[in-house]
Amino acid sequence: MTDTASLITLRSILDLASARSYQWDAATIIAVSGVDRAGDLTTRVIEDPGVLCDIADEGFSPHSPVGHALSHALHDAIQRRVRLWITVVPTAKLDRLREALGGDLIHEAGLPSGGHTPVAMSPLELLETWSRGNAEQREFMRVAMAGLDTLTTSSRATRASRSVGASIIERSLVLKLCRNPKFIAYVVVLVYSMARAVPVMFVPHFGGDWRILWLIDMVTAIPYTWGLIEMVAGQKLWHRIIGAVTAAVTFLAPYVYFLIYGRHAPLGIWFAIACIFFGGIILEVLRYMRDRAVKEGLAAHP
Known about the structure:
4 strands; mainly alpha; 302 residues; 60% helix; 2 domains
């Protein structure tokens, strides 16, 4: 892998030794993890837990050392919203792993090589499946999810943990919102929008109504924030395009009113619009390059 590719794929799945040592099927990895593109396969949401190999070697029992190891690994993964576990197991022992955890949960995710097969599974899918399983599986999840803090877990994981009677740490909606980056972004933009129109009252050549300008600011604040978030973090291309257009239009709207009743648009306005427009294009190009580099890295022969 070239230095450029290494930089583009920084903190991706390719940072894992197992991902670099075997040929993987990117489509399977993306499907099992639930992400929308290869570039989103980061080390924050993907792990290579050794416990899967231990289960393949020794089998599984809830009260065995391997069972305790799986319990701890799963609790940690669910708490941190890990989307995918990958590992490489001896091909001859793959059936044992499937029998222990569930045949539908273990996915062959690459080309077998040297007597080993790359596999992938979703920790959340394991939790949800076993929470609907037999008494032993439900009891295992009840113990494994004990102490789970709902402040950082997904709603699906929280529901599954509740369904098995796990003693989880419940958090209020207000506290969850205070830790939600999107909610914080909306609040910051709303506060900024509330204050931005006030200085216009003291602009000598502004002949409009500052209250109308303030209203435009408030009305466009939420779609502007949504547009910025979608432009940067939208899962699909058309989401990001619509987000960029929405951000540009709603950012410009208050200044259109200001220009109608005032004089001379500040240079910063046009600079900001240019940043949104060209920034969206640059982000999309970088995303495409990262997606392509990750897919090529996964498919590359070691």
